Amino acid sequence: MLYNLLSPLATEFGPLNLFRYITFRTGGAVFTALLISFVLGPPLIRWLKSRQNGGQPIREDGPQSHLLTKKGTPTMGGVLILIALTLSILLWADLSNGFVWAALFVTVGFGAVGFVDDYRKLTKRSSKGLSGKMKLLAQGTIGTIATLWIIHLTPEPLATGVAIPFVKQFLVPLGWFFVAWALFVLVGTSNAVNLTDGLDGLAIGPVLITTGCFALIAYLAGNAVFANYLQIHFVRGSGELAVFCGALLGAGLGFLWFNAPPAMVFMGDTGSLSLGGALGVISVITKHELVLAIIGGIFVLETISVIVQVASFKLTGRRVFRMAPLHHHFEQKGWKESTIVIRFWIIAMVLALAGLSTLKLR
What we know:
Layout: H1 2-6, H2 22-51, H3 66-69, H4 78-92, H5 98-124, H6 132-153, E1 161-163, E2 171-173, H7 177-196, H8 204-221, H9 224-230, H10 241-259, H11 268-286, H12 289-295, H13 297-316, H14 326-332, H15 337-357
Helix pairs in contact: 2-4, 2-10, 4-5, 4-10, 4-11, 5-6, 5-11, 6-7, 7-11, 7-13, 8-10, 8-11, 8-15, 11-12, 12-13, 12-15
């Protein structure tokens, strides 16, 4: 909004020219979302706690320690992330940019699915909310609308092509199969972040690291000079997603303030599904879906651990891990929660560096 209102006046008042710079508005989005989180966080957490009798229902088949340490903690903290993110984006982003609205549509839409899931868990006092089929149907519908929107906004052959890391200016043309590919990325990333969200601060740390990387990727992909220098695909208008990522960073940091061990609030599916959806849609728009699999490798590992565990048990009756997802396996081995979280963050940082290296190694 500030960009649309103030940048046209820059010719009359020089300092307003700052609002034309994506870097300036990205910084403003970070601090605005962070401030909103700090201001709204405490009263929102108190309100959630007063409305949720006993807090988030704890899985009985999960680690037994969680029945003691996590009991009574309110959930739906993702609402705080969505409020801070949305307000910051509306304030700092170029609201005439279709990619911003498409990304916000996926993020809020997936968050709404997560909200319904969390609400059903609370009202039923059960760790089971929406059925898997209903959740996938809702995510699929939102994802399909967003993908068609993105295709409409992107010129061919970029619109329906998939870029390959380490290869210069090459696209795999998928045609209308791109819709299925984009859905796989959006829904897969969303649920992968959801699986990772099991310990205080575990999911939000890698989300912040991945978001920071994609803020840079969006800025570079949206700048013709930098994109040409790095031999990555130039996606006109995608640079504005750096502002989106800035808002997501600020909102995530603000949430981490309250989610740091011992957590005052959990993000719930409201947060995890929306955050995963945000990362997925940004990667689709910037043509870095495969790079997301590297930078967000922690989410991939957590998902694979669940797939391997389920497949092994169904086929052989034996479990590969003591408990899935992977972070619960290390809990069962006796690792402290803080140790698991920090080590996973370290791995996420290493994977982020590996993913960013694809920008130059071509």
